[in-house]
Amino acid sequence: MLADGVRWFDDWFAIEEVAPGVVAIGEPRFHQINWNYLILGTKRALLFDTGPGVRDISKIVRELTTLPVTALPSHMHFDHTGGLAKFHNIAIADLPVLKDCEKDGWLHASDDLYRGFREGMTWTPVRVNEWLPIGSTLDLGGRVLELLHTPGHSPDSISLLDRASSILFAADFLYPGPLYAQIPGADLKAYLQTADSLLPVLPESVTLLCAHGQADEAGEHRAPRLNRQDVADLSASLTNLRGSNDRPESWPVNARMSLLLWEPAFASWQSP
Ligand SMILES: [Zn+2]
Q1: Does 25 map to a domain?
Q2: Ligand 1 centre from 162 Cα, in Å?
Q3: The overall pTM is greater than 0.90
C-alpha cells in the first residue's frame, strides 16, 4: 500500500521524509487520504495540519521530534483540524474570517468553516497562542517559512513557502485529483487570483507538497507533489472557464487535476 521510501509508523499513520527536515505524515486509510507536514528547524518545529483526528497525531509527532512544536492548520475544515486540540501551542492565520471565530481567547470555528457535521464530527474549541499575520515569516531556526493567504478552496486557506528549500506547502489550494470547489466558501475568482499571485513568487523548481493524496497505478501511496506548471495550468483552466460562460459541475485542469463545482462558487465572477 505504501510506495518505496514511505513506511508505516503504526497501522494508521504513514511517514515519508520528503526533504531534509520535512516529514510527511499520511493517513492513507482515511477516505480523504490526508497528508500533514512536520517541518523541522533547529529551534522549533511546525506541524502544518493535524488530520481528521481519527487517531491522535500528537503521539507520532512526539516520537518524531523533541523540539517544541507549534500546530498550524492550513484552514479550518475538519480533516485538517481534527487533532488541533491535542497540541499546547497553536498558531492561527490572522485573517478577519478567523478572528471572527475567537471569543475570550478560544477559537470556535463556524460550521461553514469546519464542516465536520458531514462526518458526524464536532469542533473542539482551542486556545490560540499566536495569531500569524499574512505575509509574515516564521523562523524555525535555519528554516524560514512565509505565510501566504491562498483562498479559493476556502476563504481561510493559507500556504507556506520555504524559498531556500524551494517548497510550497500548498495544503488544499492544489492537490492531485478533484479539487473541491463545490462546497460553501469555495470561490473561483479567489482561486484564479491566488494562482496568478503565486506564479510570480514560486521558483521554477518549486515542489508543491499537498494535503490530499491518491494511490498510484500500483495502488501505492506517497506524499502528494505537484509543480509550478500545475499552478499555471490551474490559472489557464480557470481563465478558460471564466471566458466560456459555462457552469459545469466539473472542469478539467490537466491530466492530474480537475475542479468540482457548484453554482455559488461562480457568484463572485457574476458580480461587477
Ligand atoms: Zn482537506
Answers
A1: yes
A2: 21
A3: yes
